[in-house]
Amino acid sequence: DVQLVESGGGSVQPGGSLTLSCVVSGYTYSAYSMGWFRQTGGKEREGIAAIESDGNPSYAGSLQGRFTISKDNAENTLYLQMNNLKPEDTAMYYCAVATGVVCGLESHWYDYWGRGTQVTVSS
Predict the structure, then answer these.
(1) 3-state secondary structure at position 118
(2) 104: buried, middle or exposed (CB in 10 Å: 19+, 13-18, 0-12)?
(3) Mind listing the pLDDT tens digit for each residue in 20-68?
(4) CA distance 102 to 118
(5) How do beta strands 10-12 and 117-121 pair?
(6) What's 100's DSSP letter?
(7) pLDDT per position as a tens digit, 80-109
(8) What is the DSSP letter of 102?
(9) In whole angstroms, what is the distance from residue 85 CA to residue 98 CA?
């Protein structure tokens, strides 16, 4: 089975930084697209960033410049560097893997999900 395990969440003051990690096991990590999403309360899961098998990243327009997605194929790990965090970034953050074609930052393209890691930004 494919397993994704996120870590790195926590509480941080506005303006602070966090780096989330997602360790992937159970499949050929480098062969597929991977993404980061977040969700708060009863809202829909929001796409943050994705990275293709060739390393090409894409971002939600509102977050580009503050968030950076990257991956380490040797370590089967996906990262999300988050800078200048704001209270509205408070959410549960999830990583996901897509095993087919991905045409955007919508959750329905992705097949496997981690359980999430909580990020809280407050003073």
Answers:
(1) strand
(2) exposed
(3) 999 999 876 666 899 999 999 889 999 999 999 888 999 998 887 899 9
(4) 26
(5) parallel
(6) S
(7) 999 999 999 999 999 999 988 888 899 999
(8) -
(9) 27
- SS3 category, 92: strand
Give residues with Cβ within 8 angstroms of 42, minimum separation 6. Answer: none
**Cα dihedral sign, 10-33-3-46:** positive
Sign of CA dihedral 75, 94, 1, 97: negative
What tokens appear for 84 in the block?
């200048």
Token pair recorded at residue 44: 């829909």
Task: Give the C-alpha separation, 95 to 14, whole Å.
Answer: 23
| Torsion angle defined by CA atoms of residues 54, 28, 36 and 52, in that order, rounded to the nearest 10 degrees | 10
- Which residue's entry shows tokens 């919508």? 106
In 3D space, the residue among 98, 91, 99 whose CA is nearest the CA of residue 119 turns out to be 91
Q: Phi, psi (5° rounding) for residue 109? A: -75, -15
**Separation between Cα atoms, residue 115 and residue 3, nearest integer Å:** 10
Quote the radius of gyration of the chain (alpha carbons, Å): 13
